Each structure stands twice: as C-alpha cells, then as structure tokens.
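Methods: example folding runs. The two proteins below were folded one after another, and each record is reproduced exactly as written to the output file, sequence line first and structure-token line second.
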Amino acid sequence: MSAIPGWLLRHRITVEAYQGSGAYGDVYAAAATVRCFLDQQTRLVRAPDGADTTSSSTAYCLLATVAPPGSRVTLPDGRRTVVINALRRDGGGLSTPDHLEVQME
C-alpha cells in the first residue's frame, strides 16, 4: 500500500470528528489539524443516505484521517463546513495513492 505523497498535502484543515448524539446534542472529538490537498469546487455528490447533494469542497487526506459524515471542518480561509461523506480510496496493495476523500458542504 502506498499513501498519498506528502508533497501533495499542501493545505491544513481543522476537523472535529462527529461521534454521535448525546443527551445535550451532537458530540464531537477535539479539533485536530489535518494535512490535505483541498479542492474547492462545486459538484454533485451522493450522501450516505442516498440523497444527491452539492459539495463545495473536497479534501484528499491520509487514509488514517478520521472525518465521518457530520464532522465539523474549518477550511484554511476560516469558512466552517460539515462533512457530507468520507470515502476510502484504498488500492488494496496496488501502487495507487491511497487516501481518504472527504466531501464537504
């Protein structure tokens, strides 16, 4: 398995991983800085519930990144957004750039 090359991870985002709902509302992990390649373009994506929705940004991160749907993300320009879907792109041992594709609102 080969990870996405470090030289491609030019941007830094802050991720507060969604952990579920509690008695007082949604619960998030402590904020973590994540190195990524950030692509800010609008495109149509499919949410985990099957609904088509619009994504304004996609971050390509190391495969070990934790950013489940519902996580809060702060982009380099300060804009706050929410994770729509996080897709594992794992080549299964092939020499592909394994990564996590994080689609955001």
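Second run, written to the same file directly after the first:
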Amino acid sequence: MNNLIRERKGMLILSLLVILLPMGLGLFLWNQLPDQVPIHFGLNGQADNYAGKAFVVFGLPLLMAALQVLLLVVTMADPKGKNIAAKPFGLLLWICPLVSLFCGTMTYAKALALPVDINLVGGLFLGLMFLVVGNYLPKCKQTYTVGIRLPWTLADEDNWAYTHRLAGKVWTIGGLVILALTFLRLPALQFVVILVLVLIPTAASFLYARRRETK
C-alpha cells in the first residue's frame, strides 16, 4: 500500500489541488457572490438552505480536503491494504475532488443566478458515478476501506467476491436507470433507485452468508 502511495504521490497532490479549486474560484467571484449562498436544493431545483459566503468559499473545500486526507490515512492503516489495486485506489482518490469541484461549481452558478438546471446536472453526475463505480466494484479485493464493507463480506472472501460481482452489475444498470430518470425529469424516483441499489447487495450478501452457514 505504501508503495502504491509513493507511486501516486504526484496524483495525491493534484487531487488536493483540485479539491481546493472551488476556493480559488470563490475568491475570484467574491464581490459578485451574495452574503448568503445556497448550499442545498429541493427536488424542484430551488434552494432550500443557505450558508455564509466565507464558509462556502473557504470552509467547504477545506472540509473536503480534510476528508481526503482522512481517507488516505485510514487506507494506509488498513491491515489488508496490500489488496488495494491501483485502479480502485485511483477511483477512491478522485471521488472527493470530483464532488468538491461539482458542488462548488454548481453552488456558485446558482448563487449568481446562472441558468443552470441543478436536477439535470446533478442527475447526470450521480448516474455516471454509479456507472463508473459499478465497473470497478468487481475488481476490488477484500479490504477494510475500499468496497462494500459488511460483516459478511469482511468475514468471507467468497462472500466478498460474490457481493461485489453482483453489486457491479446492479450499480451499472442502476446508473443507466438514474440517467434515464434524469432526462425524464423524475428526480424523486432517483432516490428510490439509490435505496434499491444499496439494499440489493446488502440483502444478497446476508442471504449468501446464511446459505453458507447451513451447508
């Protein structure tokens, strides 16, 4: 694991810089931003929660950077860290930067009253995330930090492999469904799909473990 981190040192630094990009953009737009900036939006795409400009510009990117560092520290401490392959680690490395960049850009756009359809852009982002993660899940070997960490998957490597193969297929299909619902303008159903995508691998892993116990 440490060798993988040393090999990706430049990528680690780049990921932190990308996380902090919204801070630079916020400073550039500082005088144009309102004192209260929208940070949450309802299903109708309208803002329903606000935060101070300083917190949005400085606090949110710094929180995401702290989360990135925490994820790295936890991953380094993983007793099974040697099982983390380069591609899943790269995906893990870029989740926080992409979320920070997406949220920062959308927040500033809405604060400046730009004609951005938050539901459309957010749905596309979410659907693509599930598609990408779904393709990587079957490649994840058993670890305590990367993958679907359930009591049954962590206790049994066969359960881990079965659950991740199934979840990879389900999440890939789910990503396509979320994209379709995005274009159909059905954001409420997207939350139902996400719940299903979480429940199916969890239930399948539990049932697989029960079957193994009865043999």
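Comment on the second run: The beta strands are 36-41, 47-52.
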